[in-house]
């Protein structure tokens, strides 16, 4: 099911949360709404879900206007950052809840719940209470519950934001695999650039209530539309009059390139971060350890910096 947002505006008092936003989410795609806190991405998701009514514009689901359709009739699955589980119900009862209130036959519910628990790898925890699960397991339970009613659209609002970094990484890999199995049109909100780049088919960058750019992860990273997208979607540093990716700068010892002097070298695992001073400006350069060792870099050394021409740059 495709989603189309046409000219949507939303205010809260004098605060403009969404300003003439138009976005199309393709059928079966996994789309990230990415942006800073307060940028409007969660409001946009809530408008799509029907949890917020837009002041202007329309939302279409599968080509039909859904702007005034109540939440319960949109057939949308919604997963929040906080799981909102029924604490007194077991995992399988939590997953079955939506089917039970729709009065599905008991045999159908049992079969569907078993299928979903297998899909999210929670079969062995079916009889446990939510409090007996880890944070990652509770989030998988929440996703299973959302999928139980076979939604046309799955909406996730920072689903992994409350989890630690390692669990978050594991779950986003799992979410990508899950999406490839169920193929439901999915939109998720995140402020984590790595999460969006790793998981999404398409990214919508939202800032100050407006859409800055829409495209695949590669398109946005390699060809940012403006300085905000360049800086927000990965590291960036100023080289002369151009904003570039630090790992796209090469260090030269032969007198070529923009001259500077190394002020700091920091090694973080395989990566070497080199800070080069150029006329009062600090330029960050990222090298792999082998390249840095081959150059014999040291603090105080005079070097030249050259930008590789076929990668992201934004004139400033």
Automatic annotation (TrEMBL):
What name goes with this protein? Answer: Sulfate/molybdate ABC transporter ATP-binding protein
For this protein, the record's SMART domains field holds: AAA (SM00382)
ABC transporter domain ranges (all copies)? 3-233
Q: What is the lineage of its organism?
A: Bacteria, Bacillati, Actinomycetota, Actinomycetes, Pseudonocardiales
Q: Which Pfam families match?
A: ABC_tran, TOBE_2
Question: What PROSITE patterns has UniProt attached to this entry?
Answer: ABC_TRANSPORTER_1, ABC_TRANSPORTER_2
* Keywords for the protein's UniProt record, in alphabetical order: ATP-binding, Nucleotide-binding, Sulfate transport, Translocase, Transport
Q: Which GO terms describe its molecular function?
A: ATP binding
Matching entries from InterPro entries are given as:
AAA+_ATPase, ABC_SmlMolc_Importer, ABC_transporter-like_ATP-bd, ABC_transporter-like_CS, Mo/tungstate-bd_C_term_dom, P-loop_NTPase, Sulph_transpt1, Transp-assoc_OB_typ2
Carries keyword Translocase?
yes
Q: Does the keyword Transport apply?
A: yes
């Amino acid at each position: 099911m495709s989603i189309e947002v046409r000219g949507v505006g939303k205010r809260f008092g004098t605060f403009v949360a969404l300003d003439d936003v138009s976005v199309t989410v393709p059928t079966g795609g996994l789309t990230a709404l990415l942006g800073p806190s307060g940028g409007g991405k969660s409001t946009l998701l809530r408008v799509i879900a029907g949890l917020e009514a837009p002041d202007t514009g329309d939302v279409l689901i599968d080509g039909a206007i859904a702007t005034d359709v109540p939440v319960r009739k949109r057939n949308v699955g919604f997963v929040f950052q906080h799981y909102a589980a029924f604490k007194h119900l077991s995992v399988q009862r939590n997953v079955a809840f939506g089917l039970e209130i729709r009065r599905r036959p008991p045999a159908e519910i049992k079969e569907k719940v078993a299928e979903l628990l297998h899909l999210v790898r929670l079969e062995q925890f079916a009889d446990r209470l939510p409090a007996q699960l880890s944070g990652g397991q509770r989030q998988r339970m929440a996703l299973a519950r959302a999928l139980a009613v076979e939604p046309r659209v799955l909406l996730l609002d920072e689903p992994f934001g409350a989890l630690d970094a390692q669990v978050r990484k594991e779950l986003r890999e799992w979410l990508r695999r899950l999406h490839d199995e169920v193929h439901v049109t999915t939109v998720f909100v995140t402020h984590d650039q790595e999460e969006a780049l790793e998981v999404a088919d398409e990214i919508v960058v939202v800032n100050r209530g407006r859409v800055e750019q829409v495209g695949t992860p590669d398109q946005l990273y390699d060809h940012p539309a403006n300085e905000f997208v360049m800086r927000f979607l990965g590291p960036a540093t100023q080289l002369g009059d151009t904003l570039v990716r630090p790992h796209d700068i090469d260090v030269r010892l032969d007198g070529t390139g923009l001259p500077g002097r190394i002020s700091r070298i920091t090694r973080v695992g395989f990566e070497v971060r080199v800070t080069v001073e150029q006329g009062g400006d600090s330029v960050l350069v990222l090298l792999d350890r082998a390249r840095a060792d081959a150059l014999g870099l040291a603090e105080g050394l005079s070097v030249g910096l050259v930008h590789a021409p076929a990668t992201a740059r934004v004139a400033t």
